[in-house]
């Protein structure tokens, strides 16, 4: 799993509203707004790609594998995990226990358009 990133500090804008209804802000603030709009566009494209990918696949099989934290027995789970990954399974989630980790894996197939 990827480490969580800290959320950036919120941007404080100082807007001056003119009598005619116009808005005035510094060049720095304008550049930050442009930068944030660009980032938002990139995130929106990434989300669309992931949604399209998810809708074009369906889960064919689910597999649960336990890996024990034991000096000799960890290899059994390790070998099962390696074999499943070689067979095309992907990790959906993992849950850590005091004695080991349980992995939930999925094997997906592409949906065939009608």
Characterization of this structure:
With 114 residues, this protein is α+β, with helices and mostly antiparallel strands. The chain has 2 helices and 5 strands, in the order E-E-H-E-H-E-E. The chain has helices at residues 27-55, 74-86, and strands at 16-17, 23-24, 57-68, 90-96, 100-110. The strands form 2 sheets. It has a 3-stranded antiparallel beta sheet. The chain starts with 15 loop residues before the first strand and ends with a strand.
Key traits:
single chain; alpha+beta; 2 domains; two-stranded antiparallel sheet; 2 helices
- In percent, how much strand structure appears in the residues? 25-35%
Q: Largest beta sheet, briefly?
A: 3 strands, antiparallel
Q: Strand pairing plus helix content: what structural class?
A: alpha+beta
The helix content, as a percent range, equals 25-40%
Shape summary: elongated
Number of strands: 5
The residue ranges in which pLDDT falls below 50 over 5 or more consecutive positions are: none
Give the termini distance in whole angstroms. 35 Å
Average pLDDT metric: 80
Lateral arrangement of strands in the main beta sheet: 3-5-4
Q: Give the total of domains.
A: 2
Alpha carbon gyration radius = 24 Å
Q: Enumerate how many helices there are, as a single number.
A: 2
Q: How are helices and strands ordered from N to C?
A: EEHEHEE
Describe the secondary structure blueprint for this structure.
Blueprint: E1 16-17, E2 23-24, H1 27-55, E3 57-68, H2 74-86, E4 90-96, E5 100-110
Compact summary:
Helices cover 37% and strands 30% of the residues. The radius of gyration is 24 Å and the shape is elongated. It has helices at 27-55, 74-86, and strands at residues 16-17, 23-24, 57-68, 90-96, 100-110.
């Amino acid at each position: 799993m990827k480490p969580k990133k800290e959320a950036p500090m919120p941007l404080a804008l100082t807007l001056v509203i003119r009598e005619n209804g116009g808005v005035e802000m510094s060049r720095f603030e304008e550049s930050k707004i442009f930068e944030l709009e660009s980032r938002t566009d990139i995130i929106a494209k990434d989300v669309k790609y992931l949604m399209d990918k998810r809708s074009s696949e369906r889960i064919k099989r689910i597999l649960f594998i336990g890996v024990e934290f034991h000096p000799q027995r960890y290899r059994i789970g390790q070998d099962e995990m390696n074999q499943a990954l070689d067979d095309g399974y992907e990790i959906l989630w993992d849950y850590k226990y005091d004695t080991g980790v349980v992995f939930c894996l999925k094997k997906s197939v592409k949906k065939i358009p009608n």
